[in-house]
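Ticket #4471: structure export looks truncated?
Reporter: QA, pipeline team
Priority: medium

Steps to reproduce: submit the single chain below to the structure queue and open the exported record.
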Amino acid sequence: MFKTADGEEIFVIDGHIALWDGSPENQLNIHGAQFINCFYDYHKNLSPAENLWPKDKFEKYDADTLVNDLFVKGYVDMAIFQPVFLTDFYKNGFGDIEKNAELAKKYPGRFIGNGTFDPRDGERGLEYLEYLAVNHGVKGVKLYTAEWRGSSKGYKLTDPWAQRYLEKCEQLGIVNIHVHKGPTITPLNRDAFDVADIDDAASSFPGLNFIVEHCGLPRLEDFCWIATQESNVYAGLAVAIPFIHTRPRYFAEIISELLYWVGEDRILFGSDYALWEPKWLIEKFMAFELPEDIQQETGANLTLSVKRKILGENAARLYGIDIEAQKAKIRSDKVAIRG
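Actual output as written to the record:
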């Protein structure tokens, strides 16, 4: 929980976290090394010097480190796992839904464990999606449209099989579709992360929420023109928000455009842990003010009320979380006691 100088409590839901294994022991080929090395470059180039991790820790960290960074020192009250498998790059997968579920069970009320799907898995994947809904109660999925699968270097949400998976999500009550759109990671294909296919998917499935992680950067304008038309499209701030440190005016331009086009009710905070730790991101965001000329041009205003929505209230609404009930539930749990 973040508290302002006036003692006001800000409930924080980190909408984008992961527990990954990118270690050399788990790398299947050179692409596994390329992927985690590119991640580390993002980490090095956008983090404050005092928050840099050594490479071996970044490649593989343990659950206790994650819990401490998020809930004990990071102001986070709840966090949403966004798993990515990358089975063509890693022997045992980059992320692990079952390990995420174990952690959620160990710390009740702290985690939301999302699933994932890949339409190239066909009927077998549909069965797995049903398994995730029935056995893990998932309410959301993370999609990585540029993931390699054999000779395929990605898919689009407009593909017939992707449409079948989205239909299945509706049937199973998996209503929150988080899609990585925008920043590429070596060796993945930039065009396979293009935001363009969100438009048709959002129109075809109005009962689903499409949270576009990284808000399509660097194609922010494309994203904004889509999101302003589609009321079920949301902006995830992961990767965008670290620029608040290295390029504060660039971040001001991003957040003001989002507020202008998409609005304060459809923007979600995400640290993208462990790329970046939430503590410094939240502290800088709470202290951040838009430059006057940008305010005048866009009419955007980053008030305390707006920040409260972005940091937790918008995600709570999507996942059906009663914030006051949740605060009471976790106020004296074993993580709160450690803090």
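Status: closed, not a bug. The export was complete when the record was re-opened. Leaving a note from the reviewer for reference: The chain has a mean pLDDT of 96.
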